[in-house]
Specification:
The chain has 730 residues and is α/β, with parallel strands linked by helices. It is built from 24 helices and 15 strands.
Length: 730
């Protein structure tokens, strides 16, 4: 049997350096650079000229108010400035020259004097201003908002400027979030197992809560506030009904108390059949008056404990989860029943559109649209339908879901996956910023050109009254939070784009590099370049040209294009790639299952023909001959093989580039990332060899000239087993 476990010279060399680069083993492993601090490291600014400029601009602090949030701002500034500038500045309530003033019109008379009332009136409860102005003859810097949480967001923006070495002498920043709800979805179970989690256990220690409040909870809240995330769903969408019992609601309330000063609301995933499972009822029919009362009473119980509770996330009638369909009711009727229970308290329902069922006899990519398009206009105003970015399931690349733009009367909430279920878990370097932007910037043409997915999701296209975006979290108990320091960037970019989807993936990547790895120009340029290339590289060695869902069965670890004969056809790989002696690909054109009909023209027309479809979606929408001529001039077979080989080779190039930065990056993060790249390099070759050998068994064509023969035998790859791969459902 093949094995992918081997030692490389690079890992051995790295381990030796662990012992020789520092005076002692313990010093190496406990020097504070293990990734725990995320992008909030506040390392000293070594450029003395720049540090002096900052010190001249910030000579004292004035922080108005004494709320818990103001206390957090005060502590954050003292911690940050003492780290960055080596000096924790004095506070003064007297107006001084070169003073940093933070407050709201309600708690600071100086904010009122600054003449910002009109601008502040349009910023809502979360927007903020950063201003360099003269006030009473003094040159000052203002961070102003209408609430303390808004000024907390503004404070983190200001500190980001310092961390990334930006000028602060002429600030004129106005920032408001594009999305109302900016939420992390934790697929965490009450036993601390994380479904699709690859960075250790759940950070929520339910057994010790509510009394034992880990420091990590505060650090989690602080990290989220720094990028504007304002909500967290604490538990798995495959929910345990126990989360709604008094014992667990007390624990949830203790977390809510920690998160509240950071502007973060808690939400809960609920099991739709909870009235039966924990309420002693004989039904969970959403039209049953007793069931409706049960949910109203439960909502009242929750809000008594958590006055600012956000609401419910619901996975219903999907992958075996109960739902309104079990009682002959629609998704709208189920969602509205919950919405009515929450509405008096200001809560919302996030109802997932990830539904598919074998009995519908409809191709899987079409089912969410077919299910929810007819329900447009039937949902209550405090319901958002949460839609995955693509029509299948978080693949390395998918076209945008056709639901975006199809429900003008129903707000749609984007659901991205931050965790790496289909992208190599936590050892593959894949920066997801380009993927997120690819989807958000895609034009649906729902109201003509410029009707982007982002405008659907932020509510501006159809003037929806509520908007939101969710990311399935990649966070666990690993010291570096995400299992791979680079993958912290995906948490970061999600939050930054949730706040402002007009930012570019590259500028966010550069921010993250500067804050996390350092401001050295070579480090910033090379690492940012690697981040921007990483997703396309991964697509090439996993699922090029529109291939999808060919991962191993169940755990989705490694290649499995041969997977077949499962309980449902649409759980198999062969269902999606449809390789045979004549060709490969899924025909979703009008000649096939006609999934293209769900898109607006001209997207529909673009996808309909293999000559016009973007080549990255070629095999998503079309089944083509192995000899089909691609745009490179190669046959489809040759192009497919070249993509696999190019992707695998590019990981080796990534590793070499990373190695060149050894002298400029702290030892711990350098070696953590180096070891992960060694794994990724081996696994990219595994993907390449297994997939090329498998598809060659259908194409019966030689490996293109100039490329080495794939290593190993196909049968050996097929027989590989990983019974304890992490992140599986339970």
């Amino acid at each position: 049997m093949l094995t992918i476990q081997k030692y490389s010279a690079r890992i051995i060399f790295g381990l030796l350096l662990c012992f020789t680069a520092h005076a002692s083993f313990a010093q190496f492993f406990f020097d504070g650079e293990d990734g725990y601090r995320l992008w909030l490291r506040y390392e000293p600014i070594t450029d003395r000229k720049l540090a002096k400029q900052y010190q001249q601009q910030i000579q004292s602090l004035q922080i108005a108010g004494d709320s818990q949030t103001n206390t957090i701002i005060r502590k954050e500034l003292h911690h940050a400035l003492s780290g960055l500038l080596g000096d924790s500045l004095a506070e003064s309530q007297q107006l001084k020259n070169r003073q940093l003033i933070i407050g709201t019109p309600l708690n600071s008379s100086l904010i009122g004097e600054a003449g910002l009332a009109e601008e502040l009136a349009n910023l809502g409860n979360e927007g903020y201003l950063l201003r360099s102005i003269k006030l009473r003859g003094k040159q000052v810097t203002l961070i102003a908002g209408n609430t303390d949480v808004a000024t907390l967001y503004g404070t983190f923006h200001f500190l980001r400027l310092l961390q990334t070495h930006q000028p602060i002498d002429s600030l004129a920043v106005k920032s408001t979030p594009k999305m109302d709800l900016r939420v992390l979805n934790h697929w965490d179970n009450l036993d601390r197992h994380v479904e699709r989690g690859y960075a250790g256990q759940s950070i929520w220690d339910w057994h010790k809560l509510p009394e034992y409040k880990e420091q990590r909870y505060y650090d989690y809240a602080r990290a989220n506030a720094s990028i504007g995330i304002n909500g967290t769903v604490l538990n798995n969408v495959n929910a345990d009904p126990l989360i709604l019992t008094p014992q667990y609601l007390e624990k949830v309330a203790s977390l809510a108390d920690i998160f509240r000063p950071y502007g973060i609301k808690v939400y809960l995933s609920i099991k739709f059949s909870s009235p039966q499972l924990i309420g002693g009822m004989s039904t969970s029919d959403p039209l049953n008056p007793a069931v409706q009362k049960w949910w109203r009473d439960k909502a009242q119980e929750i809000y008594k404990r958590i006055p600012d509770f956000g609401g419910f996330l619901v996975k219903a009638n999907s992958e075996g989860q109960p739902g309104p369909g079990d009682f002959g009711r629609s998704h709208a009727q189920g969602a509205n029943m919950l919405a009515e229970a929450l509405e008096p308290h200001g809560g919302i329902v996030m109802w997932r559109a990830f539904v598919y069922a074998a009995e519908k006899n409809e191709e899987r990519s079409k089912q969410a649209y077919s299910e929810f398009k007819p329900l447009d206009g039937q949902f209550h105003k405090n319901v958002l339908v949460q839609v995955k970015n693509g029509p299948i399931d978080f693949q390395p690349r998918e076209p945008f879901s056709p639901l975006f733009g199809a429900t003008p009367q129903t707000p749609l909430m984007m659901e991205f996956q931050i965790t790496m279920e289909y992208l190599g878990f936590s050892t593959h370097w894949v920066y997801l910023g380009p993927m997120y932007k690819e989807v958000l910037d895609a034009d649906t043409f729902a109201k003509g050109a410029g009707s982007t997915v982002a405008k659907v999701v932020d509510g501006s296209l159809f003037n929806n009254s509520i908007s939101g975006i969710a990311g399935v979290a990649n966070i666990g108990t690993d010291r570096n939070w995400t299992g791979h320091i680079i993958l912290q960037s995906n948490w970061y970019v999600f939050g930054r784009l949730a706040w402002d989807h007009q930012l570019s993936a590259r500028e966010i990547a550069e921010e993250w590099v500067r804050m996390t790895l350092g401001n050295d120009s070579e480090v910033v340029t090379k690492v940012t370049d690697l981040m921007m290339a990483s997703r396309e590289i991964t697509v090439n060695y996993m699922t090029p040209l529109g291939l999808h869902h060919i991962m191993a069965e169940g755990h989705h670890y490694g290649p499995g294009p041969w997977v077949k004969d499962l309980g449902r056809d649409d759980w198999t790989s062969v269902y999606y790639h449809r390789a045979d002696k004549n060709g490969i690909g899924f025909d979703r054109s009008p000649n096939g299952v006609n999934a293209v009909e769900q898109y607006f023209p001209p997207v529909r027309d673009l996808y309909t023909s293999p000559e016009t479809v973007p080549e990255e979606f070629l095999l998503w929408f079309h089944h083509l001959s192995w000899d089909y001529k691609t745009r490179s001039g190669r046959t489809l077979w040759n192009e497919l093989v070249h993509r696999y080989y190019d992707g695998a080779a590019a990981v080796g190039d990534m590793a070499q580039t990373w190695d060149s930065l050894q002298e400029k990056i702290a030892p711990q993060p350098f070696h953590q990332i180096q070891m992960a790249l060694d794994i990724q390099e081996k696994e990219a070759l595994w993907w390449r060899n297994a997939c090329v050998l498998y598809f060659q068994s259908f194409s019966d064509r030689p490996i293109p000239e100039g490329l080495e023969k794939p290593q190993g035998r196909l049968q050996d790859y097929i027989e590989m087993q990983f019974p304890h791969a992490p992140g599986q459902g339970k």
